[in-house]
Amino acid sequence: MSNRRSILVIKYIVLSAGAIIMLFPFYWALSTSFRELRDILFDPYSLVPRNPTFANYLSIFNKAPFGRYLLNSLIVASATAFLQITTASLSAFAFARMKFRGREIIFIVFLATMMIPQQILMIPQYIVVMRLGMGDSYAGLVLPYAATAISIFFLRQFFRTIPKDLEDAAIIDGCGPLRILLNVFIPLAKPAIATLSVFAFMWSWNNYFWPLLIIDSTEMRTIQLGLALFRTEGGIQWGEFMAGTVVATLPILIVYFIAQKQFIKGITLTGMKG
Amino acid sequence: MRRRPVGYLFILPAGLLLAVFLYFPLAYSFMISFTRWDLSATRTFIGLDNYRAIIASSEFWNSVLYTFYYVLGVLPFSLAIGLGVALLLRDSNMKGVGFFRMIYFMPVVTSPIAAAMGFSWIFNTQLGYANYVIESMGGEPVNWLTNYNGIFQLLFERFGIQLPHILQGPSVALTVIILLGIWQNIGYATVVYLAGLQGIPQAFYEAARIDGASPSKILRKITLPLLSPTTFFLLIVFAILSFQVFGPVQVMTPQGGPLQTTSVIVFRLYQQAFSYYRFGYASAMAFLAFSMILLITLFQMKFVERKVYYE
Question: What is the rounded CA–CA span in Å between residue A51 and residue A40?
Fold first, then answer.
């Protein structure tokens, strides 16, 4: 019995040590963001800032439109998630429950897009978006990611598990396919849709490469782009950099804390089924 | 079931978007990879010249080498540590499992840009915490992100051995970026491994215990083989994603690192296209890189999967 106990204690010690290492970068960014410049230069290593201050936060919002960056990211990530869910539910429903010529082939053609790596697409996508006059705009940030094969695939798998009877009942009541999708399938697929939205939102929020390519003006920068460029444009103000880092990270961590279950479930589902 | 041509209407929005932003760009990109083009009106068809030039360029092969260093550095550690944490967390009766899982997963949701900012600060030469720890233990401070020496070379130098270029290992700067990659992957591997562990029937363990098998034998003969599909999945996902690393490289070493030792493939690609406006050349590079990912994935499927045990 005592042997078991000591094993448990060792487990906790190892896990806690690991957790401290995993958390340290977060803590260190947070702690630095509350330090005065003087403290950063002459006493940077105390775990708790000597004279905690909000000055860095005030100053980054003065130096760069961080509020606007956050708003841009919020708009872009929400729109991306919403459109992805819309396009995915429509096609997933068609692939799961409607019959039309070439259904399986079209489905495979859709799925094949998952194999195309981002780095091949970035140059022609950039050219397409510029030619369509969507450079430096929300549309340019959102539309290329408004339909993805993975979300269609994910929802189709879920829709296929919904019992046929429910659908038949709705057909007898005289519902068309759109009605059935909206009133039967989407309510039943809420958990899957929640998972998908959270992932789409997080992915879009953290995306850096695409905004880097198509955004020119300061006002249209997303938070990731704004943060990265703030660093290159901002000299060596580490207190301010870390304040910006905290500002860019906090919203997504809040989403994560609220929707933790969706994250874990989504990874377990997509993770195991490829 | 009735035939419903209305089905086409349902797949139209997604189909249209995929056509404009994926299928067309793919074909277009293949086409421009045979041209010389700086986005101006004149686009010259030059056949395979881009591909030839790339294959003859030592810069390209260096970037391939650095990308491999990155992938091979990130993969084994992410998998091994993720598995270790999952094994420690698998007993769901233990208190605090959810809490630890939450913490280990936090870096996964953090943006690579923010994470790279945090790591740049910790590994800052003058004021970073890493050097503080090293100095307080009596060591010499390291110029992390500006050090181009390969880490294996640094190790062997003490014995007076000069390694050939390809074996010198990732530069110190690239190693910091590798550490960041591992830090961001562990939580994902942990969660996927935990799901894999749940799929192993308890009966196997009970049988092994009755036979008096030692814990290490149970790990080697039951857990690891039965987890091999999970490991294989993680291997493929991490390989594909690590191959495309870009954001952290650009934030931590904006110029491509000391002596270009952090210029991985996608970084070079970005430079060629958006700094030098060589769009044809960069497209050709993208296709070469893609063929490499494809080859590696196929290789993994063919040879590594043989070792995978499916029930």
Answer: 11
Domains: count for chain A? 2
Closest CA to B4 of A169, A98, A164: A98
Domain B21-307 has CATH 1.10.3720.10: yes
Domain-embedded: residue A246? yes
Each residue's pLDDT tens digit, A108-146: 899 888 877 777 888 999 999 999 999 999 999 999 999
> Which ipTM was obtained for this model?
0.92
Judge if A74 and A131 occupy the same domain: yes
Amino acid at A25: P
Cα(A196)–Cα(A125) distance, rounded to whole angstroms?
24
B274 interaction partners in chain A (CB closer than 8 Å)? 213
Contact flag A127-B28 (C-beta cutoff 8 Å) = yes
Q: Are residues A139 and A90 in the same domain?
A: yes
Range of the domain at A102: 67-273
B142-170 in b/e burial notation, b at 16+ Cβ within 10 A?
Answer: bebbebbbbbebbebeeeeeeeeeeebbb
Q: Which residues contact A274 (CB under 8 A, 6 or more apart)?
A: B233
pLDDT digits 0-9 by tens, B69-109: 999 999 999 999 999 999 999 887 788 888 999 999 999 99
Contact present, B232 and B193 (Cβ < 8 Å) = no
The answer to whether residues A109 and A2 belong to one domain is no
Instruction: Write the single-letter amino acid at B84.
Output: G
Q: Tell me the chain A residues in contact with residue B233 when contact means C-beta distances shorter than 8 Å.
A: 271-272, 274
- How far, in Å, CA of B15 to CA of B71, rounded? 34
Distance from CA of A224 to the nearest CA of B (A): 6
Residue A60 resides in a domain: no
